[in-house]
Amino acid sequence: MLEMTRIFKVFYEGTPDEKIALNKVDLSMKQGDFVTVIGSNGAGKSTLMNVISGKLSPDMGTVMIDGTNMTNLAEHKRALKIGRVFQDPMAGTAPTMTIEENLALAYNRTKKRTLSLGVTKKRRDFYREKLEMLHLGLEDRLQAKVGLLSGGERQALSLLMATFTDPKVLLLDEHTAALDPSRAELITNLTKEIVDHLGLTTLMVTHNMQQALDLGNRLIMMDKGQIIFSATEEEKKKLTVEKLLAEFQKIKGGGGLSDRSLLS
Amino acid sequence: MMTAMFGAVESGVIYAIMALGVYLSFRVLDFPDLTVDGSFVTGGAVASIMIVNGSDPFIATIAALFAGFLAGCVTGILHTKGGINPLLSGILMMIALYSINLRIMGKPNVPLLAEETVMTKIDNWFASDWSILLFMLVVTLIIKFITDLFLKTEVGLSLRAVGDNEGMVRSFSANTGWMKVLGLGLSNALVAFSGALVAQYNGFNDVGMGIGMIVIGLASVIIGEAVIGHSSIARATLAVIVGAVLYRMIVTLALRIEFLDTGDMKLITAIIVIIALVLPKILDRQKAAARKKKRLQQLGGNANA
């Protein structure tokens, strides 16, 4: 479903600040794969996401989704196949618009926008039905402005908006990092439920190692722009946070007192 | 005095169409578009030259609308495809339009007093002092309702979202660049339409009549929002119309003060906008202070604690 081959991305090339964000990254995901990505700050996780979504274009390499070469397509064209949830709860919704208007915007992800009304009676029923899946009571607040919702509610709404139109690939960029532990757990559970239910091909970046182990069927660890560790479905089932840390130390050459802080 | 106020309401309703255009760019798209100063005159120029050359005044006014649309699209393209900062693309277009307007008009001032215009036609049809006011009110309200409806369509929703959260709409596959071009086109179409009507209302089109138009538009939007509010789209557009009329009335009142003359208009406008922007903040601060005092009293402490 998602094929990334030999991706390079360098920032500030030729200056003292030069940073190789992605260094020959290869990643292949089958239909229905759910890959969790961990790594310290600056490891290249977000750059990886941005190269897939089209916010950044790679210096070299190709990104294929569902057999189509996406490397040179503009961000909004790639969005036809990609659903995205951002880290910042403010980023995924339009605050001055109502819940139903936000859903209408998301509904049009795969369809051409026309001069017909975005919210009709039939569509409203459909939106309400989808909102019920979140168990947050948002289905009774269709006309509330999204700016009035809490961070957790917004993030749940963003998750719904990114997924209810069946994207080929779902990108989750630390989407629970800005929430308190109980809200984060709620969103984590919703993520699991929705991804399982729709069988979405998902790539999730997280700083929470436990979450990375709980969700998904594969796991990769990134450092300095490279994938330094990759666990298959069988391997991942046996992994624990301790084993992951040990793995990280082994690869980095030991001596890392601050490894836990580096990763988490 | 009554005649002056009547005139103020009449022209306020015509300027309200321009203010609706400014609302589209300034509030909906969150794009402070200075093209308005030029495109307002472009509308007047296109309409007056066509009328002088014997066109039907209604067709001439519609033609002005399309001219404004083009001007707005160019600003949008300068910004989105040329990567020029929003304010600067508007300023560049405003300056460019000054020369273009002179070219269209052929001279700095085109008189229309001897011509048949939309205004003289309406006067002939209905033969009442109220005819122009009522006709313009109907036109302005029709434009308001079309705008309200448009902003609820799929295209309109993504237009609003561009001004609200651009990154988010892009992630839902909207081409935000072309959305901005479209929005600025529509905004300036309304501005030029209003310019064409104002020229016919005044009986002339002058190349300098657009100076400060954006500020008048902003004043209308801000005054209207302060008085009517903007909790929904329909309410916000109504607020803009009311604001435009109120602005004209305030200016008419201000001009009655002995030592002010017509040359002080722009200064009065600037001061009105400054008051409208600053006053709500002062009121908010006072309210917060009053709340604090009340809480302290409830707690039995004293206000200096």
Automatic annotation (TrEMBL), chain A:
Pfam families per record: ABC_tran
Keyword Transport on entry: yes
A single GO cellular-component term on record: plasma membrane
Keywords: ATP-binding, Cell membrane, Membrane, Nucleotide-binding, Transport
Location, primary (coarse class): membrane
Biological source species: Domibacillus iocasae
Subcellular location per the Swiss-Prot or TrEMBL entry: Cell membrane
Membrane topology of the entry: Peripheral membrane protein
Record PANTHER family: NITRATE ABC TRANSPORTER ATP-BINDING PROTEIN (PTHR42788:SF7), TAURINE IMPORT ATP-BINDING PROTEIN-RELATED (PTHR42788)
Protein name in the entry: ABC transporter ATP-binding protein
Domain ABC transporter: 2-249
GO molecular function: ATP binding; ATP hydrolysis activity
Record bears the keyword Hydrolase: no
Cited PROSITE patterns: ABC_TRANSPORTER_1 (PS00211), ABC_TRANSPORTER_2 (PS50893)
UniProtKB/TrEMBL annotation, chain B:
Gene Ontology terms for molecular function: transmembrane transporter activity
Keyword annotations of the record: Cell membrane, Membrane, Transmembrane, Transmembrane helix
Membrane topology recorded in Swiss-Prot or TrEMBL: Multi-pass membrane protein
Domain of life of the source: Bacteria
Principal location listed in the UniProt entry: membrane
TM spans (from-to): 12-29, 58-78, 87-105, 125-143, 181-201, 207-229, 236-255, 267-283
UniProt keyword Cell membrane, yes or no: yes
Subcellular location: Cell membrane
One Gene Ontology cellular component annotation held by this UniProt entry: plasma membrane
Keyword Endoplasmic reticulum set for record: no
InterPro entries: ABC_transp_permease (IPR001851)
PANTHER family reported in the protein's UniProt record: ABC TRANSPORTER PERMEASE PROTEIN YPHD-RELATED-RELATED (PTHR32196), BRANCHED-CHAIN AMINO ACID TRANSPORT SYSTEM, PERMEASE PROTEIN (PTHR32196:SF69)
Name assigned to this protein: ABC transporter permease
